[in-house]
Design a protein that fits this description.
Blueprint lengths: L2 H10 L4 H8 L3 H9 L6 H13 L22 E2 L2 E2 L2 H20 L1
Antiparallel strand pairs: 1-2
Helix pairs in contact: 1-3, 2-3
Length: about 110
Amino acid sequence: MNGEEIKRERKARALTQLELANMIGVSKSLIAQIETGAKPVSSDVTQKIKAAFDSKPKLGSIKPVHVANLQDESLVLMWKDKPFLDAESHIIRTLARLLMEQRDHD
């Protein structure tokens, strides 16, 4: 993969450079340098990026999520074909968990 391909695939998955960097354990500046062609991408980083992309499907290839699946954090939560940000997804999953726990106690 070259920098342009990485950028295209990252954007297709609605990931920021920082999110991708955090997923693979590198700095945001390294991702930026790779995408602009300022630094070549190593085979180790390429493998990590491919694994990260495999864990976060492309937009538009995602099946509708049912409430029963909200606990699966590998699923991308969306509303009208727009993905929620990671922080928003965390809030939604937390709220769903709390609601179900409350129901179990009633």
